[in-house]
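ingest -> validate -> predict -> emit
validate: passed (alphabet ok, no gaps, 149 aa)
predict: started
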Amino acid sequence: SFSPEKTLTRAELVTLLAGYADADLSGDVTASFSDVKADAWYAKTVAWAKQNGYVSGYPDGTFHPEDRVSREDFCAILSRYLQKQGADYPTKAVTFTDEDQISDYAKADVAYCASIGLVSGTDGGRFDPHSGTKRAEAAAIMVRLARLG
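emit:
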């Protein structure tokens, strides 16, 4: 089942992105994260995302595949993917009332995703950067991306 209100995991996000990118996962690749086993259902998509620079994992060499994806992390990974593709979409200025809560590493990525219309705020003009990304939200973002393309 789709479970639209379920929070997306990091493994699910890279799998979603690999599917969107029509990534070639046929090779024998390993993610080289200590917590991603070679036989895990998401191992090849995590390896693809790492090898292409879309994810870097944590300082201790882990990826945390089953952790939820925050809204700011979703933007960080998606923005890296788009910019490495040479995406050039029209942008518009967008501000959120809780911009000061967006982590420094994700500020430019959130701004980029918002400026091209992939993400929007929640109630009261907030971005709510640390809340989990629901599967329904992820699907809507990917539909918006497909329409940009």
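The mean pLDDT is 94.
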